[in-house]
Amino acid sequence: MNVLTRWLDRLKISGWHHVLFWLLYTAFWMFTSFEDEINLGQKLVNILATLFFHALVVYFNLYVLIPWFLKKKQYFGYSLSLLLSITLVCYPILYVIYLINKDIANTDLVWNGEFFLVNAVGVSYSIVITTALKLFFDWYKKENEARELSILQSQTELKFLKHQINPHFLFNSLNNLYSLSLKKSDLAPEVVLKLSEILRYLLYEASSDTVSLDREIEYLENYIEVEKLRFGNRARITTEFSGDFKNARIAPMLLIPFVENAFKHGLANTNADGFIEVSAELTEDVFFFTVRNNVFDKKTVLLSDSGGIGNKNVTQRLEILYPSRYQLNQTKSGNLYEVQLKLVLQK
Known about the structure:
Elements: H1 3-14, H2 16-32, H3 40-70, H4 75-101, H5 107-110, H6 113-182, H7 188-204, E1 211-212, H8 213-231, E2 235-242, E3 249-250, H9 256-265, E4 274-283, E5 286-294, H10 309-321, E6 326-333, E7 336-344
Parallel strand pairs: 2-4
Antiparallel strand pairs: 1-3, 4-5, 5-7, 6-7
């Protein structure tokens, strides 16, 4: 909520927005009135008496006619009711003005069609201004509420996506550990250590909106180390990271689904040897991330794979967090699969 909206809300809660309007409106009438034949005090009394009746029809319009007719698009009924209200309120105005000024005013000058028309125009002027203000601020309030709702929905969706990603990764990691335990591998303690570092990151850092890019890269390295221990010598896994990652920030858990996908459709899908290449480069505020691997699944499609929960989510998160600031290219040529991600980061 911006400053203007907060200020308007405070005025509305206290009711001072009405007082402020009528003070300014009275001042406007004082400065635009040219009744030179009467003194300033008499002039103010005339204006206050006139605006009192203006206020009656104004509030009748705002709280009765607009809700009953205008907002229901009953334009004929609204126009007729408003015209009748203006006509009826002009007679009390004429009478009160006559009583206030009867010592100095000629009766014929007050009770005539021209003066009636002048008052009708004045009442109409007040109604047009207040109606325009009400419609504008109603529109502004709806726009602001819609904007806040959109932000809230985006935040809720991001939280849901994060919560969906974390159990997915944990499930895969525990499967890795279970596999090593069945083999009674001496590597199991090292996997537990790496997994604890990964979980520490998930619990204490990945809940933030953004994290330092070097921590996200470190998280990837820990994950890859766990997978190296799982697949052993038949895995040719290489990483290449370059750039000053400490001074850049990125949404947490954004890169891991691409790496998970490489293992799932590569080494985990065959007993043959395989390779995975992961590279990351930061040039000023532009981040390049690439994953290459050989695949053994003919149906490998990143965005539509039924098991690729994390991969679907990362695309949604990119749309929400980096609109117009990312490029995602996925290509499959023979048994070679490659993902290229380009992000414009905000430091």
